[in-house]
Amino acid sequence: MEDLKAFEKFFAYELTFEEDPVDILNDILLKAKKYLASEEIEAIVQAYEFTKEAHKGVLRKSWEPYIVHPLKATQFLMEINPDAISIQACILHDVIEDTQYTYADIEQRFGKEIADICEGLVKVSKVRYKGEDRGLETIKKTFLAMAQDLRVIFIKLADRIHNIQTLQYLPEEKKTKIAQETLKVYAPVAKRLGLYAYQLYLENGSFRILYPERFEEIMEHIRKYFGGGEKFIDKGIKMLTSILKKEGLSGFTIQGRIKSPFRIFEKMEKKYHTDDVAMIMDLLAFRVITDSVSDCYMILGIIHKYYTPLIKKIKDYIALPKFNGYKSIHTTILGMFRFPIEIQIRTRAMDNIAEYGVAAHYAYAEHNASVKASSTQNDWIKRLQSIVAEYTESSNKENFKDSLNIEILDKAIFVYTPKGDIKELPQGSSILDFAFSIHSEIWLRFKNALVNGQIKPLSYILKTGDIVNINTFKNRYSAVKHRLDYLHTPSAKGQLVKYVRIQEREARLDEAIEGLNAYLKALGLPQFRGEKDQIQKLGDALEVEKRILLVLDKQETYGNIVRTAYPELTKNLQDKTVVSDISTQQKELQKSIQTSLSVPWEEVIVDNDKSLHCIFCPECTPHVGEKIIAKSSKEGIKIHTMFCKALKTISYSSLLEAHRKSEPQSNTYTLHIQLQFFKNKITIVDIIALFSTFSIPIFKFELNNVDEEKMLATIEGEVSNPAKLAFLFADLHKNHAFLEVISKSIT
Ligand code: MN
User: How far is the CA of 92 from the centre of ligand 1 (A)?
Assistant: First the structure.
């Protein structure tokens, strides 16, 4: 929800019974006049006059004159700057279904194009959600495909938005049904087309109908947070942009939005299993989109440096993606505003997946070669979206005439099972392809097929809308090789080829075994797979069968097989002696030279305590200007340079910050650490969270894949109190089964 005000207006909509249709029309015309010609405006008025007459005397359930509905729907349509044809068609949209006028009447008065759109709307209305989520994806696609012209979808969505807005006047049962259908089919279609505003209306409008009390409660909560009218989104984007730029990042984009009531509700239900709205803290969310995965983690580190993260709310869906392929980093921070803020960090590719769903996922999966169908699907959705976006922006609507034809029709068909389920198949699919798409038992036992009630030959090519009923043999398989000619889909072809191969192999194997047994019998040896048979022990069943089959190809002989299986029949075993290597060992010398001569030579402040007495390490003898660090030992506190040998082996708990009195500020130290960890066991965010716990800002974060399972993180962070590192390493060590510290040092 980008604008709370617009949203409030939508839901505050109450019928006044006084709204004059002419006022609504004028509002439409006012917008249309900005980009349409005067003849087009005139045509819109004519559509209005005709529709008003057609619906004359009819009232909606809300007691409004019917004409108010198509006009209100058209007002929503105006949000995408539609062409004149769409505006007329939207005003006329219920005429064919609800009045005495027919397609022919509309065609005669307004032309074929408008009549076709009106008829398309009738067709699309027949695609129904039956309260079952199985096959939902196909319903959405059918919805799009049935429309043939994208403008039909635009109008249908606008129509549904107004229906949802005024749904309270319908009987309870019908209300629920329409709201559910809107939520499951219409809102996702709007989302898919990138019509974000429509999606919001549809989702939240349905939500309000399905759970009125929850809706009000959440709206109240949102008002409480954002009622002050502050420009939180703009302000937040500016703040985030400035800190990221300050840290040297570029090439990122930041978006912000208030979570819509429906999204909040979803989160309460699915994630927190709560009905307490206050549990949802991240009402305001920002999204940072960047180029690379390592940038994502860098950005997370930077944000945590400036704002306090809620450690438990850091989620790394990059390391552990959700089942639907969703990847992103989420963190919730305090300190930007007076309430917590959620920040999502992801790459552009991840953002595409999140916005357009799993279809997009496959197109971005670099290593997956077998996903052609899915990426075609994805291309199609992306193409649709870009058409919709361009259409909405452009002032020259004429250019879009061709592209508004939904092209999926060239690629896919939708056919019904006798039960009314919809199957999606590539264009050119046959009855057998359909049978393959249902179940293996169906195509294996295929007898014949009825299409729309008539028996059709195997060569029949299916069309969208066909109802296909397959008859099968009860007690036998009928699949044969020559049916390959009637298959179009690669997966069906593959299955049949495989089936045929198995069939053929079995026949050949029978033949080969028969020959082998005859050979064995002649030698007086046991039959293959009989008692005391040695041949079956030559390997696993498949291997042995494969070898026997080679005889038919003349690449092996029965004699050879028998000689290997019964070696005592032919020759003696030849033993081999194995010479074992003698391993050598090496010894290492130990060096330990300790001198404890020391002379204090300058006053040093250790751990901000001026009273601590200390001595200088005689090994490294720090000079003025060299960075120093203190180490407590039996002999007292010793001051070392950062490169002193004495620092290599000590534990961090004995280290203390130290600086010369002449230096005004405490020293900070740079921690360099390399961690190797198992990707599936530890997430990068776990590691970053650990650094955050000890307030160690990270300023360098590099990731490298070690192998399939392991990753190497090279991290540099700033440490003001080196003793803290002991705790950090203790915590890192707790994960020692999955995480190994490869190297560590401070400078
Ligand atoms: Mn309508």
Answer: 9
Strand order in the sheet with 454-456: 454-456, 446-451, 468-472
Provide the token pair at 629.
């660090």
Distance 163 CA to ligand 1 centre (A): 7
Cβ contact 263:271 at 8 Å:
no
Q: Cα(86) to centroid of ligand 1, in Å?
A: 14
Distance 91 CA to ligand 1 centre (A): 9
17 and 60 Cβ atoms separated by less than 8 Å: no
Strands (E), 445-516: 446-451, 454-456, 468-472
Rounded distance from Cα 468 to ligand 1 centre (Å): 32
669-746 belongs to which CATH class? alpha beta
266 pLDDT tier (thresholds 50, 70, 90): confident
What is the whole-number distance in angstroms between the Cα of residue 187 and the centre of ligand 1?
Answer: 17
C-beta atoms surrounding 560 within 10 Å = 12
CA 42 to ligand 1 center in whole angstroms: 23
How many angstroms is it from 33 CA to the middle of ligand 1? Answer: 24
User: Could you tell me the distance, in angstroms and rounded to a whole number, from the CA of residue 70 to the centre of ligand 1?
Assistant: 6
pLDDT higher than 50, residue 585:
no
Cα(93) to ligand 1 centroid in Å equals 6
CA of 136 to the centre of ligand 1 (A): 23
CA of 394 to the centre of ligand 1 (A): 27
CA angle 203, 207, 212 (to 5 degrees): 155
Q: 94 CA to middle of ligand 1, Å?
A: 5
Has this prediction a pTM greater than 0.90?
no
pLDDT at site 601: 46
Q: Could you tell me the fold of the domain covering 224-352? A: Beta Polymerase; domain 2 (3.30.460)
pLDDT of residue 125: 81
- Alpha-carbon distance values, 573 to 9, 171, 566, 567 (Å): 94, 91, 12, 8
- Which CATH code fits 412-478? 3.10.20.30
Q: What are the boundaries of each domain within the chain?
A: 1-210, 224-352, 412-478, 497-595, 601-660, 669-746
Q: Dmax of the chain from CA atoms?
A: 110
Residue tagged 């439409």 (tokens): 28
Contacts of 363 (CB under 8 A, 6+ apart): 371, 374, 375, 378, 379
375-398 pLDDT, tens digit each:
344 454 555 666 666 666 666 666
Strand partners, 712: 676, 704
Domain 1-210 adopts which CATH fold?
Answer: Hypothetical protein af1432 (1.10.3210)
> What DSSP string runs through 620-689?
T-PPTTS-EEEEEETTEEEEEETT-THHHHS-GGGEEEEEETTS-S---EEEEEEEEEETTTS-HHHHHH
Residues with CB under 5 A from ligand 1 (ion): 94, 159
Question: 155 C-alpha to center of ligand 1: Å?
Answer: 9
The span from the CA of 372 to the CA of 651, in Å, is: 56
User: Could you tell me which residue, 470 or 192, shows the higher pLDDT?
Assistant: 470
Question: What is the whole-number distance in angstroms between the Cα of residue 130 and the centre of ligand 1?
Answer: 20
Asked which of 85-94, 246-255, 618-627, 708-717 is least confident by mean pLDDT, the reply is 618-627
Q: Are 709 and 740 contacting, i.e. CB atoms less than 8 angstroms apart?
A: no
505-560: pLDDT as tens digits: 888 898 899 888 888 887 788 899 888 888 988 888 888 999 999 888 888 888 88
Q: Show the DSSP H helices in 62-171 as ranges.
A: 68-77, 84-91, 95-98, 103-110, 112-125, 136-147, 150-165
Cα 302 to ligand 1 centre (Å): 51
C-alpha 95 – ligand 1 centre gap (Å): 9
